[in-house]
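Q: I'm building a small set of examples for a reading group on sequence design. Run inverse folding on the following structure and report the sequence directly after it, with nothing in between.
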């Protein structure tokens, strides 16, 4: 990740939101590019090679889920934060299912979003001491964002790798939900605890032989999660 400026791509059609975000992010020293519809956003995700994408859910030509899925096909790792005007849990789940890593609900505080992005890049800047590790019959390759299992491999998002790494480093000790939120998403209250659970459900589908009877990522009720490698 060289010495260059971090680049953020904003895909959003509401000019006042774009302007507010551009100002705040440039003030923080980031490079910012913006696109106002899904089609040009998908193109920019390829040509601009952003380090992070802020993606509006309601775009004039495509919805954010479609945009997210399309970007994910060519770039499994880039962190994608969805900007949604909806607060229904179902929409958030769908957002995470389509490959988003995080979401903020409008109206959001620009300051909070910027803080979250800063936290994200701090983690990206920190070199990882572990290059790969074993969970059961699966191998997680940290910088390649790959999960290899039974001769096949599956892409992992940045946040999925971070969560597995955090749990792995604790060597079977349970990790509190609040700590996961703070360490992985850099926030206290968002996404909600429920959405961490949905995130884990998705991750189990990639990792576990029987996702609804997990052997590796275990729920510690009323507390959080632990990993049994
Ligand atoms: Ca919109």
């Amino acid at each position: 990740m060289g010495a260059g400026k971090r680049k953020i791509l904003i895909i959003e059609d509401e000019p006042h939101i774009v302007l507010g975000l551009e100002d705040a992010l440039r003030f923080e020293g980031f490079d910012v590019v913006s696109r106002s519809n899904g089609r040009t956003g998908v193109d920019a995700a390829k040509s601009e090679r952003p380090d992070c994408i802020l993606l509006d859910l309601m775009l004039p030509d495509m919805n954010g889920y479609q945009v997210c899925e399309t970007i994910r096909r060519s770039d499994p790792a880039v962190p994608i934060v969805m900007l949604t005007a909806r607060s229904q849990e179902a929409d958030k789940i769908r957002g995470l299912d389509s490959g988003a890593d995080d979401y903020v609900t409008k109206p959001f505080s620009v300051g909070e979003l910027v803080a979250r992005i800063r936290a994200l890049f701090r983690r990206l800047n920190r070199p990882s001491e572990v290059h790969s590790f074993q969970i059961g019959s699966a191998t997680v390759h940290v910088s390649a964002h790959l999960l290899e299992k039974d001769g096949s491999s599956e892409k992992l998002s940045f946040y999925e790798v971070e969560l597995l790494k955090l749990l792995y480093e604790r060597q079977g000790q349970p990790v509190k939900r609040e700590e996961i939120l703070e360490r992985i998403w850099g926030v206290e209250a968002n996404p909600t605890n429920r959405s961490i659970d949905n995130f884990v459900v998705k991750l189990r589908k990639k990792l576990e032989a029987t996702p609804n009877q997990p052997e590796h990522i275990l729920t510690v009720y009323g507390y959080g999660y632990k990993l049994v490698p």
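The chain has two domains: 7-125, 132-227.
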